[in-house]
Amino acid sequence: MSSTGYAHPPPFDVVYETLFPIIYRVSLRVTGDREVAEDLCHDAFIKLMERSDLLADIQQSKYWLIRVVKNLSLNNEKRRNREKAAYSKFSRLSVTSTESSEKQMIREMTRADVQSALDALPYNLRVPLVFREYADLSYKEIGAILRISESNVKVRIFRARERVGKALAEGDAYVS
Amino acid sequence: MCPDRQILSAYFDGEIAAPWGREIAAHVATCELCRAQLSRMEGTRGLLTEEEAQGWWAPMERVRLRIIGHVPLERHTVPAWRRQVSLPLPVALIAAALLLTFGITLAVLATRTNMGYIRVTKAPAGGTEYQFAVPYDKVEALLKSMGGAEANIESVMTIPKSVKLIPVGEPRMGKANEFPRKKP
Fold it and tell me: pTM of the entire structure?
């Protein structure tokens, strides 16, 4: 029996619904763009469909999908760096939605601040932090995906956390 | 003595092995500074992971539909006959000339096949020489039309080498020539 508790590989739908929220959050926070995040998820899950051997173990599927997303996001990151200046405002707005109450507005601003703080990080600091905070990967798993040592992961996460914390503090982010 | 801030960050992530982790936990319990540091990390994590309620639901359904239908949103495939082709002007002119030549050649060949051809040349001795090539079923008609002409006509029929003639009936002249050679 696999670690998912299934005697046989679970249907693709089950794996999809279990892992989509994690993969989407990771994609969104790495890319900072909802449409691009959806595209990455689409491409990653299409690739997963072709690897039925992975479906038996949801943890392994998650790990594999995150690796795919990381590889796919690299191309996007190169394009984004070229367009960063022109689209920085759009990127900030793209993670907001329309909610009316004052508290919700403050929350939306905070979410936008969070994305801005992540966007401001260099890619090599942003990705380990996102993998840690949104995918709950261990330092060892992150190191394997990024092909860096665990101690390097530790340093990058620490630096990323420091910078994000500082940026959010300067932006007076709302903490509930 | 307070642990290094990187160590504290790893401890916050649960990445410090048990004996060292217990040491740090014991220290943090008594250290205001380290507790404040951990509290800031907790606050940052809270902000990072605070999500819209079910914010992923709509994207999940959209992506599911795309996966089911394999319908790429922005990648429209254009049929080959509707794709725009851009060529440099000289290349386009050469292509047009080649096409025109090919078309004319095809038309000429098709005309020859159906109608036969006639070549008119001036004979060295004076007069005009006509060379015809006609399909087999038109030969009789051609000979009839030649028979009705008033001009002096000398005709030569060229048979392709691939055609084999089968002799039919008695070859009288051959027989006559052989006769004298017979011994009485």
Answer: 0.59
Q: Please state the domain extents for chain A.
A: 12-170
CA distance A20 to A1: 23
Beta bridge pairs of residue B119: B131
Give chain B's contact residues with A (Cβ, < 8 Å). Answer: 5-6, 9-10, 13, 15, 40-41, 43-52, 56, 59-60, 62-64, 66-67, 70, 73
What is the fold, at CATH topology level, of the domain defined by A12-170? Answer: Arc Repressor Mutant, subunit A (1.10.10)
B23: confidence class by pLDDT, cuts 50, 70, 90: very high
Residue A136 structure tokens: 């709950």
Q: Which residues of A have a CB under 8 Å from any CB of B?
A: 16-17, 20-21, 24-25, 29, 34, 37-39, 41-42, 45-46, 49, 97, 107, 110-111, 113-114, 118, 129, 132-134, 138-139, 154-155, 157-158, 161-162, 164-165, 168, 173, 175-176
- Overall average pLDDT of the B147-175 stretch: 65
- The answer to whether ipTM exceeds 0.95 is no
**Residue spans per domain, chain B:** 1-76, 90-147
Contact between A175 and B46 (Cβ < 8 Å): yes
Q: How many CB atoms lie within 10 A of CB B86?
A: 5
Two structure tokens written together for A78: 């190169």
